[in-house]
Amino acid sequence: MAAATLIAVAQLAGVSTSTASRALTGHPSVLPDTREKVLAAAQSLRYRPNRMASALRTRRTGLIGLVVNNLWNASFTAIADEVQAWGATEGQQVLVCSTDGDPAREAAFLDTVAEHRFDGVVIAGSGGNHDRINALLDDGTAVVTMNREVPGARATSVMPGYTTAGRLAVEHLLAAGHTRIAEIGGLDRFTSGREQHVGIVEALGAAGLPADPALTERGPFDPAFGRAATERLLDLAEPPTALLITNHEAIFGVLPVLSERRIEIPSGLSVICTEDEPSFAWWHPPMTVVDNRATDMGRAAVVRLVEQLTGVATGVHRDVVEPVLVVRGSTGPPSRT
């Protein structure tokens, strides 16, 4: 069967071809009842718009790119859900690229975004490729970066309040009476690793406590690192009474060690993480977190993307979504024994 044409849709709806086109693209000049007739006709005929032809006329392809480092981290999943939900309501097709944080894989996808003239791209990625990001902006593509700073990029960004997250976590543990607080975090070359560590050091310093190198483990975003770091900390002659995990991927190496060693939580060790995960509320006991509000970050990114797509953007912005402390059962006073 031959594909239905716009002319056929217009004839079935009893309108002109130009009216049918405006109705299908959501133009505000079309009356609601006329739009309903056209949409019903299009559905009846199984009409599919020719995106390539439309792009030639409007310089819009209806394509949005989304770059994430992975899709098993709950924050990236929440961001992807928000961008895709917006795309579904606005007739935009969202193409997701998961790169494992590899700048080269990210670069290849950004080249595809440029070659196929995507309308926009949200990049919660490696923190690199500023040259490609700037080239996209110069070509009129809407760009929002997230999660990691991209030095040299001229794009609007939406960032978590990483420094606040580290500070809130330490302040919570200090208030419970802990002074031997261990950190399992990320490296300085990553925005989250660097800024959360700053928040931790500042909060400890405000309480008159120096950051103890023996209680600080910082490494790659990898469960294997989390396992090794936890074992080193627990094997100290004077182990910590509280464990603060700012390296989210590492936590999936931390938790098995705590289970294997039958660590009593929170009486034997308080545990807090600076990023939430649905399973943390089901863990036993439920885990205290500093929630980075990934869903809100996704929504903020959509707002900034739409501003650029509609031409109402006013300069380059750096939005910071501040985290909130969620106290559950995994933190408490240190053991007195």
Question: Would you summarize the structure shown here?
Answer:
It is built from 12 helices and 12 strands. With 337 residues, the protein is α/β, with parallel strands linked by helices.
Topology:
Elements: H1 6-13, H2 17-24, H3 32-45, H4 51-58, E1 63-68, H5 74-90, E2 93-98, H6 103-115, E3 120-124, H7 130-138, E4 142-146, E5 156-160, H8 162-175, E6 181-185, H9 191-206, E7 216-218, H10 223-234, E8 242-245, H11 251-260, E9 270-273, E10 288-291, H12 294-309, E11 318-321, E12 324-326
Parallel strand pairs: 1-2, 1-3, 3-4, 4-5, 5-11, 6-7, 6-8, 8-9, 9-10
Antiparallel strand pairs: 10-12
How would you describe this protein?
- This protein is an alpha/beta fold.
- It folds into 3 domains: 6-49, 434 Repressor (Amino-terminal Domain) (Orthogonal Bundle), CATH 1.10.260; 61-160 and 294-322, Rossmann fold (3-Layer(aba) Sandwich), CATH 3.40.50; 162-292, 3-Layer(aba) Sandwich (Rossmann fold), CATH 3.40.50.2300.
- Helix content is 43%, strand content 16%.
- It is built from 12 helices and 12 strands.
- The strands form 2 sheets. The chain has a 6-stranded parallel sheet, with helices on both faces. The protein has a 6-stranded mixed sheet with strand order 7-6-8-9-10-12, with helices on both faces.
- Helix 8 runs parallel beside helix 9.
- The longest helix is centred in the first third of the chain and has 17 residues, at 74-90.
